[in-house]
Please model this.
Amino acid sequence: MRKRLLLLCSLLTSAVLFADEFEKNYGNGVIHIQPDSFTTVDFYAGPDSAFTYRLHMQSGSWSFSPIVNGAMMVGTTIPQWFSTLYFIPYGEYARVDIIAIDSGKGYYRTILKDDNGREVWIKKTEEVSYLSWFGFYQSVASVEFISGEVIFYERPDPKSLQRKYTQMYPDQEKTTMRPLEVKGMWMKVETRFPDPDPQKPWHVYTGWIKWRDDKQPLIKYNLMGC
Model:
């Protein structure tokens, strides 16, 4: 009995470490900002603290201003710590996406830390929304494999290998996918799959892929579908 308990504890500990490693590097979702003609987003050092930076986006222009001793300083340079998945504040594909760790009461905590080592939080407003990683992948034009080898499974099970395809040439059309469902590290996708005969059309195919491992994503995303 003791050995079984020790084994169970070991498995549970491994599972926690397994989940934490990915979240440490990539958080657990994305804070999504969809700018319109006039959008202001304030950054805080924590819930209910005074805001420390302001991002202002308006009709094709933007500014990023630090707050010093309670006063807003004029600035237009994006600081080095402001790392985003997308920073496109205007135009057809306008959006700002920042990796999120979790959320507190009325605030989202980002994976960022400013030049002073302070955590960066964003207040929950109508202009700011939270997307799970699955929701984020659904919001872009397509997702693609990082490597040239494309592996699909019949079920979210490594023993259910269904088909494998290797892109032989750099200029070969990439296998793009549309996310349908997520179960842990597995994602169900719909894709166009090439026929072995180059004269025949591509087939629509639905299957499961591993979209991440314990440390990082295994797929990349394309905002503009090109």
The radius of gyration is 21 Å. The helical segments are 2-26, 133-139.
